[in-house]
Amino acid sequence: MLNRRTFLHTAALTGAATTLLPNALWAATKPAKDKLGVALVGLGYYSTDLLAPALQQTKNCYLAGIVTGTPAKAEKWKKQYNIPDKNIYSYQTFDQIANNPDIDVVYVVLPPSMHEEYVVRAAKAGKHVWVEKPMAVTAKECQNMIDTCRKNKVALTVGYRLHHDPNTQEYVKALRDGKIGKIQMVNCSAAYYDARTDHWKQKKEMGGGVMYDMGVYVLQGARLATGEEPIAVTAQQYTTRPEVYRNGLDETTTAQLVFPSGARAVVQSSYGMNMNFLHVTGSKGILEMEPYSAYNGVKGTFSGGASGSINHPYQAPGQQVRQMDDDAESILQNKPVLVPGEEGLRDIKIVEAIYQAARSGREVKIS
């Protein structure tokens, strides 16, 4: 299995070296700890069903506190996880977290429209920050988050769980090692049928729309597969449920990406159908991952120039355990995090270009 050090080196080979380095700027000013205390901000499905259970399995961090606007949730979590009253905050009392030495990391798990505010507030409180994807709604917000964390000398990392998955790490290494030759075409899909009608994902003002959510996965698939950043995009969007996805909110988005090497990618994301795969065509063969971005069961094969299988099994929340342990280890050892804010910023720049291309019906250049 490709270890973290090798994966960081592999990322550098893709041209992402400048992406991985800036968070080494934070200062080691706090007392040494064996484990970091994490406070979850927002206690919805992802925190409840995946992050909190994962924090019971992590070695380098633990659930130390919560931030919620619902008193009933606070009481339930307090009893379930034995959280002290002093480590429980509301959104109104959030800034008092600055005075709590039990909490080293704030993990923002809120609707995307709220990410910038709480990342900035956490950084100003002197806490390291993990933020769930998408990093934010606009590139401008992402940059402000990066700048604020750098100014306050705290780490900032985006919750891209797949980067920490050994299956992802192995397929990236196989492609970089030339197992299927020069990359020519990438086809990546991440989609599921979402029957909800009143979730933040169906509200434009809260950062809804499929491209921000599932779309980030397919952009990651294309970028990791090619090892490059796209330079141009065309896109199309549509909905089969205009009563739910209205005012330009996308239920389904497809995009075509152009890369500097001449490689192309076709990516699809949707809340209206089920798809989950990565297919990479090279000059000597193909690589396929299916499922590609699931919480477990990720696996694949490659054949042509070389042949092999990729299958490192685990149970959910295995990805989240690895993600938080890796990020906590980086902070404890004062090393660059695997997925810094700059990585999330790059994806949001592409998302903005895709929306522009879909609206205009024209190719949009990406700088």
Task: Give your account of this protein's structure.
With 367 residues, the protein is an alpha/beta fold. The protein has helices spanning 4-20, 45-55, 71-81, 115-124, 139-151, 166-176, 210-226, 318-332, 341-360; strands spanning 36-41, 61-67, 88-89, 105-108, 128-131, 156-158, 183-191, 232-238, 252-258, 264-270, 275-282, 286-289, 300-303, 308-310, 364-365. Strand 13 (300-303) and strand 14 (308-310) form a beta hairpin. The model is unreliable at 1-10 and 12-29 (pLDDT under 50). The protein has 9 helices and 15 strands. Helix 1 packs across helix 6 (166-176), helix 4 packs parallel to helix 5 (139-151) and helix 5 packs antiparallel against helix 9. The strands form 2 sheets. It has a 9-stranded mixed beta sheet with strand order 14-13-12-11-7-10-9-8-15. The protein has a 6-stranded parallel beta sheet with strand order 3-2-1-4-5-6, with helices on both faces.
Quick synopsis:
With 367 residues, the chain is α/β, with parallel strands linked by helices. Helix content is 34%, strand content 21%.
List the helices and strands and how they pair.
Elements: H1 4-20, E1 36-41, H2 45-55, E2 61-67, H3 71-81, E3 88-89, E4 105-108, H4 115-124, E5 128-131, H5 139-151, E6 156-158, H6 166-176, E7 183-191, H7 210-226, E8 232-238, E9 252-258, E10 264-270, E11 275-282, E12 286-289, E13 300-303, E14 308-310, H8 318-332, H9 341-360, E15 364-365
Parallel strand pairs: 1-2, 1-4, 2-3, 4-5, 5-6, 7-10
Antiparallel strand pairs: 7-11, 8-9, 8-15, 9-10, 11-12, 12-13, 13-14
Helix pairs in contact: 1-6, 2-8, 4-5, 5-9, 7-9
